[in-house]
Amino acid sequence: MSKIRLGILGGGADSLIGILHRVAANMFDHYEITGGAFDIDFEKSKNFGEKLGLDQDRIYKDIDAMIEAESNLPKDKRIQVVSVLTPNFLHFPMAKQLLENGFHVICEKPLTTTYEEAKILKAIREKTGSIFAVTYTYTGYPMVRQMKKMIAEGVIGKIHKVDIQYYQGWINSLIHDKEKRSNTWRLDPEKSGISCCIGDIGTHAFNMAEFLTGTRIDKVLADLNYLYEDNPMDIDGTVLVRYSDNAKGVIRASQIATGEENNFCVKIYGDKGGLKWEQENPNYLYHLTEDKPLQTLKPGHAYNSDFSLEGTKLPPGHPEGIFDSMGNIYLGIANAIKNHTKFEGAYPDLEEGVRGMMFIEKTVDSHKKGNVWVNLND
Amino acid sequence: MSKIRLGILGGGADSLIGILHRVAANMFDHYEITGGAFDIDFEKSKNFGEKLGLDQDRIYKDIDAMIEAESNLPKDKRIQVVSVLTPNFLHFPMAKQLLENGFHVICEKPLTTTYEEAKILKAIREKTGSIFAVTYTYTGYPMVRQMKKMIAEGVIGKIHKVDIQYYQGWINSLIHDKEKRSNTWRLDPEKSGISCCIGDIGTHAFNMAEFLTGTRIDKVLADLNYLYEDNPMDIDGTVLVRYSDNAKGVIRASQIATGEENNFCVKIYGDKGGLKWEQENPNYLYHLTEDKPLQTLKPGHAYNSDFSLEGTKLPPGHPEGIFDSMGNIYLGIANAIKNHTKFEGAYPDLEEGVRGMMFIEKTVDSHKKGNVWVNLND
Amino acid sequence: MSKIRLGILGGGADSLIGILHRVAANMFDHYEITGGAFDIDFEKSKNFGEKLGLDQDRIYKDIDAMIEAESNLPKDKRIQVVSVLTPNFLHFPMAKQLLENGFHVICEKPLTTTYEEAKILKAIREKTGSIFAVTYTYTGYPMVRQMKKMIAEGVIGKIHKVDIQYYQGWINSLIHDKEKRSNTWRLDPEKSGISCCIGDIGTHAFNMAEFLTGTRIDKVLADLNYLYEDNPMDIDGTVLVRYSDNAKGVIRASQIATGEENNFCVKIYGDKGGLKWEQENPNYLYHLTEDKPLQTLKPGHAYNSDFSLEGTKLPPGHPEGIFDSMGNIYLGIANAIKNHTKFEGAYPDLEEGVRGMMFIEKTVDSHKKGNVWVNLND
Amino acid sequence: MSKIRLGILGGGADSLIGILHRVAANMFDHYEITGGAFDIDFEKSKNFGEKLGLDQDRIYKDIDAMIEAESNLPKDKRIQVVSVLTPNFLHFPMAKQLLENGFHVICEKPLTTTYEEAKILKAIREKTGSIFAVTYTYTGYPMVRQMKKMIAEGVIGKIHKVDIQYYQGWINSLIHDKEKRSNTWRLDPEKSGISCCIGDIGTHAFNMAEFLTGTRIDKVLADLNYLYEDNPMDIDGTVLVRYSDNAKGVIRASQIATGEENNFCVKIYGDKGGLKWEQENPNYLYHLTEDKPLQTLKPGHAYNSDFSLEGTKLPPGHPEGIFDSMGNIYLGIANAIKNHTKFEGAYPDLEEGVRGMMFIEKTVDSHKKGNVWVNLND
């Protein structure tokens, strides 16, 4: 069975979102990055595409060139799905063009800059029937998926309270300076739409609130904070949300929660119990009940749902971050092979392996001799 | 600059270690998996190689075939480095053969089954000068690297106490049953060498004890536990270690710490402070001093060393596991594209993106109208 | 210097609030419980007073009897301050009567059942100038005091965001049953005033919001939840609060956060940093900044303010709960002395002390002999 | 039923251990402090006794005077039990004298300075049959008691691994200076017996190891650290302990674990599960099993044993430290009554109570008017 042919728009150079999508695409051996336009500067794009090992003729000048060339290829060579990783205001035109030309789409959030545009995409997709994903990344965590399943199965009963927080502090460092705040694209409605804080992170909280409960929110009442008269974009806000008269909630988002990083926390309570999850420690799902000890669920255990287990790659107790740990070691080795300067300890050398074997033998030796001291290095 | 050509021995089918190495190799766009022998069953190996998108003629029957064919290729096509992911007892012969034929080697731990074999590899490598890495994976974590640097810079002063623990509980489920314990390959010295617990996880603790301090351990005194007379392999042990008369330590390892997963903890104390790190929550490094509040360091911040920052791919506050979260979403999309059955919520659909845009606009609307309720779905 | 003579109204039998106030009064050797009326049943009150070791003639039938008798005593014998621990609706008349008769007052919260009554007490106190404390207990924690001081000293700069949560789940077990909810005094406006959740715990959050910031809240916007039409009292609510246009906050309180105990959390952010504290782990104060590692302050350290240190009785690292641990041991001993049935292990017997001395000597012996096994029990 | 008459030797002035014992004695209303000798300076002792509210003639010059006078009192007036809170080397002679004169004894640890002395006390007690408690305080924590019960009931099955740590860092600040270390009484064998670290805290770990398992340790193998040649006392050590050939353990104690406060942790594993507890967060008991989520038990819940519940004074979710919080507030009030200078916020004044009532009413008002802003201060 062949891999899915994936195109990428944007995400070149050091783009973090680019790395994230490429690693994700490689993770389960389902995708092959086949082509793309990675940068508005065509030269840079070409260099980047080469670094990824792409054929020269699948590295495109822009989306138009890509669509034209790919559409002329036979169906079994053609890019099937395209990841849109460009600046926010380009999401809409690009996604639209891709849909209209028969591609599946993976689009970074926010989907568009206005609700109006979003509805247009929806209408087109209804005709084309394409796959169209918006990468609200957090819903992919194994314990978030487990939480969704437990709620669906009635583990916490009928929900009456939802509390979601997404606190960051990064904008504090520039909001208090008039010069700085007038020069930040995030605070410029032309580039970022009508909202900064709600648009960037409040929307994650909202998506989670509907994803987990499987229920639509009915109405909202918001109090936002702009902090300065001359600042046109919210940087903090509390939103009262109502699913129904008896199921209420609150979404809290901030970019001036100074010192917070990505403190995204979810708490949902029903008449049989509660569930809590925190993005910064994503491997723990807390299940509260009235009469039993607090239970902490972790990924990979048989007690989890298939939906959760499908997303766990390693046995219990390895934080998913171990991929990165191994990735860093491969990076160290690559630097060594390429004769780059390397950090001492960038990867464990043969010498460490030899000492490891010595340790094992000497340790067993100490025990067998009656728990006595044994020298290493003999 | 072209990618490094990587070969793989073993790691086929559902091998977890295989996934881990492939994801790691892809992470920084430095490697291209070029060939390999993934399974002793050649048919299975071929299917697997195809799934990875390899050329048919770079999928080999065995290591001999691979070495012969690759050696005949021009230097700029030839596999440069090989990852050895086979069962432990094959590490030695394969690594030896690879070294002797001019390949760089990445070898899973334990390096060999005896100290003697390890010393042979060391002697060969001294002649060839190849890159040879042993994947003690944990040394790749950003906060472990930061810990090493802080110790090297004297942040905790002269070290006088090292305490390392690696507790698992998995063998408890089979050790108490005579039948089961006699049929486990881990407890068979023929297949696993002379030690189970120390050989598998104690060796990680030992490696960490030397990696972090930059100092060699002088001697050991061990008390191991075999629990049953008929069990030839240790499954638990405490090892007193001595760097010098005034710098002492203890390594504790267990596979009968029932209920533990991979509870690998490191504590190092010197005359100016202490440092602590836990593998199951790898993004936190604790720095203790006598007269200041406890400090908790996290990856990606400017206060970290270059060595640590080089291994961080995302801004602070995203657990490295977010790669997996995104990976799971790409998997969901792949299943949709391939028309496989999918879990509801396996990826966020366009519909979620549309609602997100609605939420943002309605929220700002509520605020601007004076903090009043606004209906969604209009 | 003699102790302060303390009278107590209510708090008899197994009253938890009674135990709490008595232990607190004894803690620093400043008070002597001199008299009181502990129960509406005079017999029970007399027995209880005797148990406390009070003189018979200082155990009173009711507040009237107490005030009359005490007022006739010479000033240096007379009760100086009275703790009002009776049901909520009695707080107002009792506090009023005490103030009017020249006593200092310590009153449990809520102060009264209406704002009107509260203002009356305020007016009287302005004339008498008495000491009048309302026991918002949480402000007495050392780390809460440290937080107040740090904010006052500008450590987190100008405050722009306050987020306080008090979540409990206890009312979930009775709110869903029509019978039960109509028979709960907490849900009866006659007995509990106009509010259940806000009145009982929201008020703690509000007090903390003003205590810590040293600033008054200007206005509120609330969304409460009653869950059932026939329930007249709020059991959950979110309150938007505003200090000023640029300093906003949110108070969240719930009694249907199923499974929560007393999850009272405080987060305050300013332009220089943030501070966080959680009541269920009260010895940790988290200080966040933009460019330094997270700092965790603990009680008793010299880096704390005098205000905080004054309230710490033990060296760092002993949770304040160690008083209770020792208290439990004294209880075990009391039961033994009084020949009550006792739990095995209720207190450490001499035998344990003997073994402790043996352990010390044998351990040193093992070391001195060169790290060898030494038998105990010789 | 009258209170138990308690005498106290030592513990005067600012003695922390004195405060701890007095608060504990008062906690359940079982004891009345009746007399004592609090200081070797009789004047100071008298002042201190007066502060405690004792009769002048029950404040004694020394233990001899106390024993003589009390022995002459009728049995129902006489001190029944005496707490020995004097320096370590006085424990033995005082406890001996008290036993020989018919008193019950509560003795601080370590019981004596030698194992020999301890055995003498044991022999005397066997004749007198007195109550004799040694205050290994930690065994009084509710969750430690719960742990003991669960082990006794077989919840974690047959124990095969015990791991106990008591790490402090305080001696680091003086051990590295030759002058300082030679002038510390803790490091002087004349005053402190043969061991510093093992004698002071290792003994707590040992006691816990036997208390929790209900099983005696058979033998030990120790490696201690003295750090400097001229230091005669251990300040760090690891002790291998053996209950039997298949139940092994390790006790780790240190006073040079720089930056640690009272990091006393207990881990016990059996063939059905594991239990973990940490002294610095004493309200959490962790129960690990192989196939279920981690369970966290907390005090006061019905799922706990009677033995544990007997030692819990408050409903779940109030850390036991809340006694101290209330104690601090009573202290603030005392200072106000006595006209001492006071810290702002030292206790919540009537004003705070008034605002609390206003908050409740205005909040309900906002909700009832349809979630609108309502000003406070009207």
UniProtKB/TrEMBL annotation, chains A, B, C, D:
Residues 6-136 form the Gfo/Idh/MocA-like oxidoreductase N-terminal domain. Residues 144-275 form the GFO/IDH/MocA-like oxidoreductase domain. SUPFAM superfamilies: Glyceraldehyde-3-phosphate dehydrogenase-like, C-terminal domain, NAD(P)-binding Rossmann-fold domains. It comes from the Bacteria. PANTHER family: CONSERVED EXPRESSED OXIDOREDUCTASE (EUROFUNG), OXIDOREDUCTASE. This is Gfo/Idh/MocA family protein. It comes from Christiangramia antarctica.
